[in-house]
Design a protein that fits this description.
With 487 residues, the protein is of the alpha+beta class. It has a domain of 91 residues. The chain contains 20 helices and 10 strands. An 8-stranded antiparallel β-sheet has the order 5-6-8-7-9-4-3-10. It has a two-stranded antiparallel ribbon with strand order 1-2. α2 packs across α3 and α10 packs antiparallel against α11. The longest helix has 16 residues.
Length: 487
Protein backbone atom coordinates (compact mmCIF):
# COMPACT_ATOMS: atom_id res chain seq x y z
CA UNK A 1 0.00 0.00 0.00
CA UNK A 2 1.26 3.47 -0.83
CA UNK A 3 2.23 5.61 2.12
CA UNK A 4 0.00 8.69 2.40
CA UNK A 5 1.60 11.93 1.23
CA UNK A 6 3.17 14.23 3.80
CA UNK A 7 2.31 17.84 2.96
CA UNK A 8 5.12 20.40 2.88
CA UNK A 9 4.92 23.14 5.49
CA UNK A 10 4.75 26.78 4.43
CA UNK A 11 7.14 29.21 6.11
CA UNK A 12 5.55 31.41 8.77
CA UNK A 13 5.52 34.54 6.59
CA UNK A 14 3.86 32.70 3.73
CA UNK A 15 1.36 31.10 6.08
CA UNK A 16 0.45 34.51 7.48
CA UNK A 17 -0.03 35.94 4.00
CA UNK A 18 -2.20 32.96 3.10
CA UNK A 19 -4.37 33.40 6.19
CA UNK A 20 -4.78 37.09 5.44
CA UNK A 21 -5.82 36.33 1.88
CA UNK A 22 -8.25 33.66 3.10
CA UNK A 23 -9.81 36.21 5.43
CA UNK A 24 -10.17 38.69 2.57
CA UNK A 25 -11.85 36.04 0.42
CA UNK A 26 -14.20 35.05 3.22
CA UNK A 27 -15.21 38.69 3.65
CA UNK A 28 -15.65 39.27 -0.06
CA UNK A 29 -18.96 39.33 -1.83
CA UNK A 30 -20.32 36.30 -3.60
CA UNK A 31 -19.18 36.40 -7.18
CA UNK A 32 -21.84 37.35 -9.69
CA UNK A 33 -22.00 36.00 -13.24
CA UNK A 34 -20.53 39.33 -14.32
CA UNK A 35 -17.59 38.83 -11.94
CA UNK A 36 -16.94 35.37 -13.35
CA UNK A 37 -17.06 36.79 -16.86
CA UNK A 38 -14.53 39.43 -15.79
CA UNK A 39 -12.17 36.72 -14.53
CA UNK A 40 -12.47 35.05 -17.91
CA UNK A 41 -11.59 38.31 -19.66
CA UNK A 42 -8.54 38.76 -17.42
CA UNK A 43 -7.39 35.23 -18.20
CA UNK A 44 -7.82 35.87 -21.92
CA UNK A 45 -5.91 39.16 -21.69
CA UNK A 46 -3.04 37.35 -19.99
CA UNK A 47 -3.13 34.62 -22.62
CA UNK A 48 -2.86 37.27 -25.35
CA UNK A 49 -0.16 39.07 -23.35
CA UNK A 50 -2.25 42.23 -23.60
CA UNK A 51 -1.62 44.49 -20.61
CA UNK A 52 -3.83 47.22 -22.10
CA UNK A 53 -7.01 45.18 -21.85
CA UNK A 54 -9.44 47.18 -19.62
CA UNK A 55 -10.49 43.96 -17.88
CA UNK A 56 -7.18 43.92 -15.98
CA UNK A 57 -7.66 47.46 -14.62
CA UNK A 58 -11.28 46.70 -13.77
CA UNK A 59 -10.31 43.57 -11.85
CA UNK A 60 -7.45 45.37 -10.08
CA UNK A 61 -9.98 47.82 -8.61
CA UNK A 62 -12.55 45.17 -7.68
CA UNK A 63 -13.80 44.79 -4.11
CA UNK A 64 -13.16 41.03 -4.18
CA UNK A 65 -9.58 40.00 -3.32
CA UNK A 66 -9.71 37.13 -5.79
CA UNK A 67 -10.17 39.39 -8.77
CA UNK A 68 -7.43 41.73 -7.56
CA UNK A 69 -5.16 38.71 -7.28
CA UNK A 70 -5.87 37.61 -10.86
CA UNK A 71 -5.19 41.12 -12.15
CA UNK A 72 -1.92 41.36 -10.24
CA UNK A 73 -0.71 37.99 -11.46
CA UNK A 74 -1.72 38.71 -15.06
CA UNK A 75 0.14 42.02 -15.06
CA UNK A 76 3.23 40.29 -13.73
CA UNK A 77 3.13 37.47 -16.26
CA UNK A 78 2.54 39.85 -19.17
CA UNK A 79 5.40 42.14 -18.16
CA UNK A 80 7.94 39.42 -17.39
CA UNK A 81 8.23 36.09 -19.22
CA UNK A 82 9.92 34.63 -16.12
CA UNK A 83 7.42 36.03 -13.62
CA UNK A 84 6.83 33.74 -10.67
CA UNK A 85 5.16 36.14 -8.25
CA UNK A 86 6.14 34.35 -5.09
CA UNK A 87 6.80 37.61 -3.24
CA UNK A 88 3.74 39.49 -4.39
CA UNK A 89 0.91 36.95 -4.39
CA UNK A 90 -0.67 34.87 -1.66
CA UNK A 91 1.10 31.51 -1.43
CA UNK A 92 -0.40 28.55 -3.21
CA UNK A 93 -0.83 25.20 -1.50
CA UNK A 94 2.28 23.05 -1.68
CA UNK A 95 1.99 19.74 -3.56
CA UNK A 96 2.17 16.42 -1.68
CA UNK A 97 5.64 15.29 -0.61
CA UNK A 98 6.23 11.72 -1.76
CA UNK A 99 8.92 9.38 -0.40
CA UNK A 100 11.57 8.15 -2.83
CA UNK A 101 11.68 4.46 -3.80
CA UNK A 102 14.71 2.75 -2.25
CA UNK A 103 16.16 1.78 -5.63
CA UNK A 104 16.47 5.41 -6.73
CA UNK A 105 19.22 6.02 -4.20
CA UNK A 106 21.23 3.19 -5.75
CA UNK A 107 20.41 4.52 -9.20
CA UNK A 108 21.64 7.99 -8.24
CA UNK A 109 24.85 6.70 -6.68
CA UNK A 110 25.92 5.02 -9.93
CA UNK A 111 26.73 8.28 -11.71
CA UNK A 112 29.94 8.65 -9.74
CA UNK A 113 30.89 5.04 -10.60
CA UNK A 114 30.99 5.28 -14.40
CA UNK A 115 34.63 4.08 -14.50
CA UNK A 116 34.24 1.58 -11.66
CA UNK A 117 33.66 -1.53 -13.75
CA UNK A 118 33.05 -3.74 -10.73
CA UNK A 119 30.38 -1.41 -9.39
CA UNK A 120 28.68 -1.24 -12.77
CA UNK A 121 28.80 -5.01 -13.05
CA UNK A 122 27.16 -5.37 -9.65
CA UNK A 123 24.50 -2.88 -10.71
CA UNK A 124 23.60 -5.02 -13.75
CA UNK A 125 22.42 -7.63 -11.23
CA UNK A 126 20.38 -5.21 -9.10
CA UNK A 127 16.84 -6.28 -8.21
CA UNK A 128 15.52 -3.12 -9.89
CA UNK A 129 15.57 -2.86 -13.68
CA UNK A 130 16.02 0.94 -13.71
CA UNK A 131 19.31 0.45 -11.83
CA UNK A 132 20.43 -2.26 -14.24
CA UNK A 133 19.62 -0.13 -17.27
CA UNK A 134 21.41 2.83 -15.69
CA UNK A 135 24.57 0.76 -15.47
CA UNK A 136 24.28 0.03 -19.19
CA UNK A 137 23.82 3.73 -19.93
CA UNK A 138 26.93 4.68 -17.96
CA UNK A 139 29.39 2.03 -19.12
CA UNK A 140 32.05 3.19 -21.57
CA UNK A 141 35.27 2.10 -23.24
CA UNK A 142 37.24 2.32 -20.00
CA UNK A 143 35.61 -1.02 -19.10
CA UNK A 144 36.36 -2.69 -22.44
CA UNK A 145 38.63 -5.25 -20.78
CA UNK A 146 35.90 -6.39 -18.39
CA UNK A 147 34.76 -9.64 -19.99
CA UNK A 148 32.00 -10.16 -17.45
CA UNK A 149 30.34 -6.87 -18.37
CA UNK A 150 30.55 -7.61 -22.09
CA UNK A 151 29.10 -11.08 -21.51
CA UNK A 152 26.23 -9.63 -19.49
CA UNK A 153 25.22 -7.15 -22.16
CA UNK A 154 25.53 -9.67 -24.96
CA UNK A 155 23.36 -12.00 -22.88
CA UNK A 156 20.69 -9.32 -22.59
CA UNK A 157 20.63 -9.00 -26.37
CA UNK A 158 20.38 -12.73 -26.96
CA UNK A 159 17.60 -13.01 -24.36
CA UNK A 160 15.33 -10.60 -26.26
CA UNK A 161 11.83 -12.10 -25.80
CA UNK A 162 9.93 -13.34 -28.82
CA UNK A 163 6.95 -11.23 -27.70
CA UNK A 164 7.98 -7.71 -26.67
CA UNK A 165 4.48 -6.26 -26.91
CA UNK A 166 3.84 -6.57 -23.18
CA UNK A 167 5.61 -6.62 -19.86
CA UNK A 168 4.69 -7.28 -16.25
CA UNK A 169 4.95 -4.64 -13.55
CA UNK A 170 8.56 -4.34 -12.42
CA UNK A 171 9.84 -6.23 -15.47
CA UNK A 172 11.05 -5.24 -18.94
CA UNK A 173 10.38 -6.46 -22.46
CA UNK A 174 12.65 -5.08 -25.22
CA UNK A 175 14.46 -2.68 -22.91
CA UNK A 176 17.31 -4.92 -21.72
CA UNK A 177 18.35 -5.97 -25.22
CA UNK A 178 18.11 -2.41 -26.51
CA UNK A 179 20.25 -0.92 -23.76
CA UNK A 180 22.54 -3.92 -23.78
CA UNK A 181 23.51 -3.61 -27.44
CA UNK A 182 24.28 0.11 -27.09
CA UNK A 183 26.47 -0.59 -24.06
CA UNK A 184 28.21 -3.42 -25.89
CA UNK A 185 28.86 -1.13 -28.87
CA UNK A 186 30.76 1.23 -26.59
CA UNK A 187 32.70 -1.61 -24.97
CA UNK A 188 33.40 -3.91 -27.91
CA UNK A 189 32.14 -2.52 -31.21
CA UNK A 190 32.99 -5.63 -33.25
CA UNK A 191 30.92 -7.86 -30.99
CA UNK A 192 27.99 -5.46 -31.14
CA UNK A 193 28.13 -5.26 -34.95
CA UNK A 194 27.66 -9.01 -35.12
CA UNK A 195 24.40 -8.74 -33.16
CA UNK A 196 22.97 -5.66 -34.84
CA UNK A 197 21.46 -7.07 -38.08
CA UNK A 198 18.78 -9.03 -36.21
CA UNK A 199 17.87 -6.01 -34.06
CA UNK A 200 17.80 -3.69 -37.06
CA UNK A 201 15.17 -5.94 -38.66
CA UNK A 202 13.06 -6.32 -35.52
CA UNK A 203 9.32 -5.61 -35.66
CA UNK A 204 9.33 -3.33 -32.59
CA UNK A 205 10.40 0.15 -33.68
CA UNK A 206 12.12 0.96 -30.38
CA UNK A 207 14.43 -2.02 -30.90
CA UNK A 208 15.39 -0.68 -34.33
CA UNK A 209 15.86 2.81 -32.85
CA UNK A 210 18.33 1.47 -30.29
CA UNK A 211 20.00 -0.53 -33.05
CA UNK A 212 20.64 2.81 -34.77
CA UNK A 213 22.13 4.22 -31.57
CA UNK A 214 24.35 1.18 -31.23
CA UNK A 215 25.37 1.46 -34.88
CA UNK A 216 26.39 5.04 -34.18
CA UNK A 217 28.56 3.96 -31.24
CA UNK A 218 30.11 1.21 -33.39
CA UNK A 219 30.52 3.54 -36.40
CA UNK A 220 28.55 1.12 -38.59
CA UNK A 221 27.65 3.57 -41.35
CA UNK A 222 26.30 0.88 -43.67
CA UNK A 223 23.63 -0.07 -41.15
CA UNK A 224 22.89 3.57 -40.41
CA UNK A 225 22.23 4.21 -44.10
CA UNK A 226 19.75 1.36 -44.10
CA UNK A 227 17.99 2.54 -40.97
CA UNK A 228 17.89 6.14 -42.23
CA UNK A 229 15.12 5.03 -44.59
CA UNK A 230 13.26 2.97 -41.98
CA UNK A 231 9.46 3.10 -42.17
CA UNK A 232 9.29 4.55 -38.66
CA UNK A 233 10.15 8.23 -38.35
CA UNK A 234 11.72 7.84 -34.91
CA UNK A 235 14.10 5.17 -36.19
CA UNK A 236 15.01 7.25 -39.23
CA UNK A 237 15.59 10.28 -37.00
CA UNK A 238 18.09 8.38 -34.83
CA UNK A 239 19.91 6.99 -37.86
CA UNK A 240 20.13 10.28 -39.78
CA UNK A 241 21.30 12.18 -36.71
CA UNK A 242 24.12 9.67 -36.22
CA UNK A 243 24.97 9.43 -39.90
CA UNK A 244 25.30 13.20 -40.20
CA UNK A 245 27.91 13.20 -37.43
CA UNK A 246 29.90 10.38 -39.04
CA UNK A 247 29.75 11.10 -42.77
CA UNK A 248 28.82 14.80 -42.94
CA UNK A 249 27.59 15.75 -46.43
CA UNK A 250 28.60 12.48 -48.08
CA UNK A 251 25.05 11.26 -47.48
CA UNK A 252 23.13 14.37 -48.51
CA UNK A 253 21.04 12.26 -50.90
CA UNK A 254 19.64 10.40 -47.90
CA UNK A 255 18.94 13.65 -46.07
CA UNK A 256 17.16 15.08 -49.11
CA UNK A 257 14.79 12.11 -49.00
CA UNK A 258 14.47 12.58 -45.26
CA UNK A 259 13.05 16.09 -45.51
CA UNK A 260 10.17 14.78 -47.65
CA UNK A 261 8.89 12.52 -44.86
CA UNK A 262 5.86 13.17 -42.63
CA UNK A 263 7.36 13.19 -39.14
CA UNK A 264 8.57 16.58 -37.91
CA UNK A 265 11.32 14.86 -35.92
CA UNK A 266 12.99 13.22 -38.92
CA UNK A 267 12.50 16.26 -41.16
CA UNK A 268 14.21 18.39 -38.51
CA UNK A 269 17.37 16.24 -38.28
CA UNK A 270 17.53 15.72 -42.05
CA UNK A 271 17.29 19.47 -42.63
CA UNK A 272 19.94 20.13 -40.01
CA UNK A 273 22.21 17.64 -41.76
CA UNK A 274 21.73 19.55 -45.04
CA UNK A 275 22.77 22.93 -43.66
CA UNK A 276 25.75 24.33 -45.63
CA UNK A 277 25.50 21.47 -48.12
CA UNK A 278 27.57 21.83 -51.32
CA UNK A 279 24.62 20.39 -53.27
CA UNK A 280 23.07 23.24 -55.26
CA UNK A 281 19.64 21.59 -55.21
CA UNK A 282 19.28 21.78 -51.43
CA UNK A 283 17.91 25.35 -51.03
CA UNK A 284 15.02 24.84 -53.43
CA UNK A 285 14.21 21.42 -52.01
CA UNK A 286 14.25 22.77 -48.45
CA UNK A 287 11.93 25.65 -49.37
CA UNK A 288 9.46 23.26 -51.02
CA UNK A 289 9.29 21.25 -47.81
CA UNK A 290 9.10 24.43 -45.74
CA UNK A 291 5.99 25.43 -47.71
CA UNK A 292 4.52 21.98 -47.09
CA UNK A 293 5.05 22.31 -43.34
CA UNK A 294 3.63 25.84 -43.27
CA UNK A 295 0.47 24.48 -44.91
CA UNK A 296 0.12 21.92 -42.12
CA UNK A 297 -0.55 24.80 -39.67
CA UNK A 298 1.01 22.99 -36.74
CA UNK A 299 2.69 25.30 -34.23
CA UNK A 300 4.59 22.48 -32.54
CA UNK A 301 6.42 21.71 -35.81
CA UNK A 302 8.31 24.99 -35.53
CA UNK A 303 11.68 23.25 -35.10
CA UNK A 304 11.27 21.43 -38.40
CA UNK A 305 10.29 24.64 -40.19
CA UNK A 306 13.26 26.54 -38.77
CA UNK A 307 15.65 23.73 -39.72
CA UNK A 308 14.30 23.76 -43.29
CA UNK A 309 14.80 27.52 -43.50
CA UNK A 310 18.37 27.14 -42.25
CA UNK A 311 19.03 24.41 -44.83
CA UNK A 312 17.78 26.81 -47.52
CA UNK A 313 20.05 29.55 -46.21
CA UNK A 314 17.12 31.63 -45.02
CA UNK A 315 16.77 33.39 -41.63
CA UNK A 316 14.46 32.15 -38.89
CA UNK A 317 12.55 35.43 -39.15
CA UNK A 318 10.94 34.07 -42.33
CA UNK A 319 9.05 31.41 -40.40
CA UNK A 320 5.28 31.43 -40.95
CA UNK A 321 3.69 29.96 -37.83
CA UNK A 322 -0.07 29.47 -37.69
CA UNK A 323 -1.97 32.33 -36.05
CA UNK A 324 -2.31 32.15 -32.29
CA UNK A 325 -5.72 30.86 -31.20
CA UNK A 326 -6.96 32.58 -28.04
CA UNK A 327 -10.13 31.06 -26.66
CA UNK A 328 -11.42 30.73 -23.11
CA UNK A 329 -11.64 27.03 -22.21
CA UNK A 330 -14.92 25.99 -20.65
CA UNK A 331 -13.48 25.19 -17.21
CA UNK A 332 -10.86 27.93 -16.90
CA UNK A 333 -12.79 30.23 -14.55
CA UNK A 334 -13.94 27.40 -12.27
CA UNK A 335 -10.39 26.06 -12.06
CA UNK A 336 -9.01 29.53 -11.38
CA UNK A 337 -11.43 29.82 -8.47
CA UNK A 338 -10.25 26.54 -6.96
CA UNK A 339 -12.46 23.81 -8.44
CA UNK A 340 -11.12 20.39 -7.38
CA UNK A 341 -10.76 18.47 -10.65
CA UNK A 342 -8.89 15.18 -10.76
CA UNK A 343 -7.84 12.87 -13.54
CA UNK A 344 -7.18 9.14 -13.44
CA UNK A 345 -4.40 7.90 -15.70
CA UNK A 346 -4.78 4.19 -16.43
CA UNK A 347 -1.79 2.37 -17.84
CA UNK A 348 -2.29 -0.41 -20.37
CA UNK A 349 -2.19 -3.93 -18.88
CA UNK A 350 0.48 -4.67 -21.50
CA UNK A 351 2.61 -1.97 -19.86
CA UNK A 352 2.35 -3.30 -16.34
CA UNK A 353 -1.09 -1.81 -15.61
CA UNK A 354 -1.99 0.34 -12.63
CA UNK A 355 -3.42 3.83 -12.22
CA UNK A 356 -2.38 7.15 -10.79
CA UNK A 357 -4.52 10.18 -9.99
CA UNK A 358 -3.71 13.80 -10.80
CA UNK A 359 -5.23 16.93 -9.28
CA UNK A 360 -5.29 19.91 -11.64
CA UNK A 361 -3.63 23.07 -10.31
CA UNK A 362 -6.05 25.59 -11.74
CA UNK A 363 -5.15 27.94 -8.89
CA UNK A 364 -1.69 28.31 -10.49
CA UNK A 365 -2.30 27.62 -14.19
CA UNK A 366 -6.02 27.86 -14.96
CA UNK A 367 -5.79 28.22 -18.75
CA UNK A 368 -3.33 25.38 -19.21
CA UNK A 369 -5.18 23.10 -16.81
CA UNK A 370 -8.47 23.82 -18.58
CA UNK A 371 -7.01 23.20 -22.03
CA UNK A 372 -5.55 19.90 -20.93
CA UNK A 373 -8.87 18.99 -19.33
CA UNK A 374 -10.57 19.61 -22.68
CA UNK A 375 -8.05 17.31 -24.39
CA UNK A 376 -8.68 14.62 -21.79
CA UNK A 377 -12.42 14.82 -22.43
CA UNK A 378 -11.73 14.33 -26.14
CA UNK A 379 -9.70 11.19 -25.43
CA UNK A 380 -6.59 12.83 -26.89
CA UNK A 381 -4.17 10.96 -24.64
CA UNK A 382 -5.72 7.52 -24.91
CA UNK A 383 -3.27 5.09 -26.47
CA UNK A 384 -0.28 7.46 -26.43
CA UNK A 385 3.00 6.55 -24.77
CA UNK A 386 5.67 7.66 -22.34
CA UNK A 387 8.43 8.16 -24.89
CA UNK A 388 10.97 9.72 -22.54
CA UNK A 389 11.86 8.03 -19.26
CA UNK A 390 14.73 9.32 -17.14
CA UNK A 391 14.32 7.46 -13.87
CA UNK A 392 15.93 10.14 -11.68
CA UNK A 393 14.45 13.14 -13.49
CA UNK A 394 11.12 12.92 -15.36
CA UNK A 395 8.86 10.76 -17.44
CA UNK A 396 7.36 12.50 -20.48
CA UNK A 397 4.56 11.44 -22.79
CA UNK A 398 1.48 12.48 -24.69
CA UNK A 399 3.03 12.86 -28.14
CA UNK A 400 1.07 11.46 -31.12
CA UNK A 401 4.44 10.58 -32.64
CA UNK A 402 6.15 9.31 -29.46
CA UNK A 403 8.71 12.08 -29.90
CA UNK A 404 9.29 15.47 -28.32
CA UNK A 405 9.02 17.24 -31.69
CA UNK A 406 5.52 15.96 -32.44
CA UNK A 407 2.85 17.68 -30.37
CA UNK A 408 -0.55 19.32 -30.31
CA UNK A 409 -1.03 21.74 -33.26
CA UNK A 410 -1.72 24.84 -31.12
CA UNK A 411 0.82 26.11 -28.60
CA UNK A 412 -0.21 26.43 -24.96
CA UNK A 413 1.00 29.59 -23.23
CA UNK A 414 3.11 29.43 -20.08
CA UNK A 415 1.65 30.26 -16.66
CA UNK A 416 4.77 30.24 -14.56
CA UNK A 417 4.97 30.59 -10.84
CA UNK A 418 3.50 29.67 -7.52
CA UNK A 419 4.08 25.91 -7.47
CA UNK A 420 7.58 24.47 -7.63
CA UNK A 421 8.52 21.39 -9.65
CA UNK A 422 8.47 19.08 -6.65
CA UNK A 423 8.47 15.31 -6.97
CA UNK A 424 5.06 14.23 -8.27
CA UNK A 425 4.13 17.51 -9.94
CA UNK A 426 3.22 17.61 -13.63
CA UNK A 427 4.76 20.13 -15.99
CA UNK A 428 4.24 21.17 -19.60
CA UNK A 429 6.84 20.31 -22.22
CA UNK A 430 8.11 23.31 -24.18
CA UNK A 431 10.98 24.21 -26.48
CA UNK A 432 11.04 27.89 -25.58
CA UNK A 433 8.72 30.32 -23.84
CA UNK A 434 5.00 29.89 -24.63
CA UNK A 435 5.52 26.77 -26.77
CA UNK A 436 3.60 24.19 -24.75
CA UNK A 437 2.86 21.19 -26.97
CA UNK A 438 0.40 19.33 -24.68
CA UNK A 439 3.02 16.74 -23.74
CA UNK A 440 3.14 16.03 -20.03
CA UNK A 441 6.11 15.38 -17.85
CA UNK A 442 5.97 14.10 -14.29
CA UNK A 443 8.78 15.11 -11.97
CA UNK A 444 10.31 12.02 -10.37
CA UNK A 445 12.42 14.14 -8.01
CA UNK A 446 12.40 17.75 -6.86
CA UNK A 447 13.44 19.78 -9.93
CA UNK A 448 13.33 23.38 -8.72
CA UNK A 449 15.66 24.42 -11.55
CA UNK A 450 12.68 23.99 -13.91
CA UNK A 451 10.53 26.55 -12.09
CA UNK A 452 11.50 29.55 -14.22
CA UNK A 453 10.83 27.84 -17.56
CA UNK A 454 8.08 25.23 -17.24
CA UNK A 455 4.51 25.50 -16.00
CA UNK A 456 3.25 23.23 -13.22
CA UNK A 457 -0.39 22.42 -14.00
CA UNK A 458 -1.07 19.34 -11.87
CA UNK A 459 0.17 17.05 -9.12
CA UNK A 460 -0.01 13.34 -8.41
CA UNK A 461 -2.27 12.67 -5.42
CA UNK A 462 -2.37 8.86 -5.58
CA UNK A 463 -0.43 6.07 -7.28
CA UNK A 464 3.09 7.52 -7.25
CA UNK A 465 4.46 3.96 -7.28
CA UNK A 466 2.86 3.47 -10.71
CA UNK A 467 4.60 6.63 -11.95
CA UNK A 468 7.93 5.37 -10.58
CA UNK A 469 7.42 2.09 -12.41
CA UNK A 470 6.86 3.53 -15.89
CA UNK A 471 9.28 2.27 -18.55
CA UNK A 472 10.07 3.81 -21.92
CA UNK A 473 7.34 3.08 -24.46
CA UNK A 474 4.68 2.21 -21.88
CA UNK A 475 1.18 2.92 -23.17
CA UNK A 476 -1.43 5.16 -21.53
CA UNK A 477 -4.66 3.19 -21.88
CA UNK A 478 -6.86 6.13 -20.89
CA UNK A 479 -7.10 9.39 -18.99
CA UNK A 480 -10.49 10.12 -17.47
CA UNK A 481 -12.00 12.82 -15.28
CA UNK A 482 -12.91 11.61 -11.80
CA UNK A 483 -16.41 12.62 -10.74
CA UNK A 484 -16.61 15.40 -8.12
CA UNK A 485 -12.89 15.30 -7.36
CA UNK A 486 -13.35 11.80 -5.91
CA UNK A 487 -10.43 9.96 -4.42
Amino acid sequence: MTRPPVHRLLPASALAAGLLFAAEVAAAQTLTPQDSALIGRVLLAEDRRDASDPAIAQAAAHADARLRRFAQRSRGRIADAKFVGRDSLPPLAAPPAWPEPAWRLRFRALTAQRDNCAALGAATRDESWPVRLRAAQLVRASCASDSALATTFAGWVRALPADVSRRSAGAVSWHAAAHGVVALARLRPAEARALLPALAAHGQWQVRQYAARAAAAAADTALLRRLATDRDDNVAEAAIEALARLTKHADDAIYLRGITREGAQVVRVAAEALKDSPDASVPAAAMREFARFVARRNASERDARLALLAAAGRPASEDQPPPLRVELPADAVALALGADVRLRVTMSPASGGGTFDVRLRGDAAPMMAARLLALVRRGYYDGLTWHRVEHDFVIQGGSPGANEYVGFPAFLRDELGGVSHARGTLGMSTRGHDTGDAQWFVNLRDNARLDADYTVWGEVVAGIEVVDGVMEGDVIQSVRVLANGSR
